[in-house]
Amino acid sequence: MSTDNPGIDPLDGLRAPQDPACDVFLTGTVFLDIVFTGLDSAPVRGTESWARGMGSSPGGVANMATALARLGLHTSLAAAFGDDHYGEYCWDALEQGEGIDLSMSHTVRGWHSPVTVSMAYEGERTMVSHGHEAPPPDTRANGTFPHCPPRARAAVASLAPGRSEPWVATAARHGARIFADVGWDETGRWDLDALPDLEHCQAFLPNAQEAMRYTRTECPRAAARALAERVPLAVVTLGAEGAYAVDAATGVTAEVPAIEVEALDPTGAGDVFVAGFVTGTLADWPLADRLAFAGLTAALSVQEFGGSLSAPGWAEIAAWWQRVRTCDGQDPAALQRYAFLEDLLPAAARPWPLRRAVPTIGFRSPA
């Protein structure tokens, strides 16, 4: 279990003996992320740029898996890992460092780990990636995934036009609540019918541009209402404006503004938002509380660099809550929006801001 989760179980009181051991299942590609920060501008061709900060950590689907685990959810990840030093580092960081179940994952002999170099500047990021698709696992040696994922309370899927993942339907049929995000549609069609796994999803969480393009609307709130005709719960992230959600079953809507922070690196913030929303949903919180919590975790994440490394745990959330309640000039209404945290959080043992150790492939001896 991650040291950033001080014994908090957000599902405490909701667990029963017959429940699955896994809270959230997900699958995807794990990258080694090398992140440069402290750049004043984008690199210029023909010149050398020096960054004031640098670190390495597992990335790709590891961002989401780490964010879920740090919030106290029992997380299972199915992924391929290279048998190089990068792959070994990522496996150990996720399994030993974060307590993520990798029993559905496998190491591929002779396959090198995908790598992403991310450069953060002016609140944005530029990335360069390299990798090759991993060969399918030998199911004789590694269980039955992807045809039969483990029983889980929830699963997180990434939808893509024209692609259907058989495990999504299987997981939904076995009782998992499917949460899905989506990437940019390179085909330019923006057709919801081209997302076949959407029919299995309980919640769909696109950003504003994606939502408006898929629904042919001019307003992200109108887009959320249109999406709620296709999925039980539509959540549209609005960037600096926060997020808006529509519950199709109850008709309830919620909108929560974003928390203003000084962003160091936005890598993985969307994954952290989804992890926070999944946590609140499985804990059966009101819709507005789920949105507020997801936005808070995402805001805390952008103040650190790295994707998986920056995902906050309960210690960071507790330190933030303690800090904002003691600052002068706070808006009482804004504080009340997060009052639901009071009964969840431990007494903050360390003052805000908390600083993490610098991520690295690993020192030969303790620093």
Rg is 20 Å
Instruction: Say how many strands there are.
Output: 14
Q: Can you count the helices?
A: 9
Q: In angstroms, what separates the terminal alpha carbons?
A: 22 Å
Question: What structural keywords apply?
Answer:
single chain; eight-stranded mixed β-sheet; 26% helix; alpha/beta; globular; four-stranded mixed β-sheet; 367 residues; 21% strand
Notes on the structure:
By secondary structure, the chain is α/β, with parallel strands linked by helices. Helices cover 26% and strands 21% of the residues. The chain has helices at 61-70, 85-98, 166-173, 208-215, 220-227, 269-282, 287-301, 314-326, 332-337; strands at 22-27, 30-37, 53-60, 75-78, 80-82, 106-108, 115-121, 124-130, 152-159, 177-182, 201-204, 233-237, 243-247, 253-256. Helix 1 crosses helix 6 (269-282), helix 4 packs across helix 5 and helix 6 (269-282) runs antiparallel to helix 7. The two termini are 22 Å apart.
Question: Secondary-structure map with pairings?
Answer:
Elements: E1 22-27, E2 30-37, E3 53-60, H1 61-70, E4 75-78, E5 80-82, H2 85-98, E6 106-108, E7 115-121, E8 124-130, E9 152-159, H3 166-173, E10 177-182, E11 201-204, H4 208-215, H5 220-227, E12 233-237, E13 243-247, E14 253-256, H6 269-282, H7 287-301, H8 314-326, H9 332-337
Parallel strand pairs: 1-4, 1-9, 2-7, 5-6, 9-10, 10-11, 11-12
Antiparallel strand pairs: 2-3, 7-8, 12-13, 13-14
Helix pairs in contact: 1-6, 4-5, 6-7
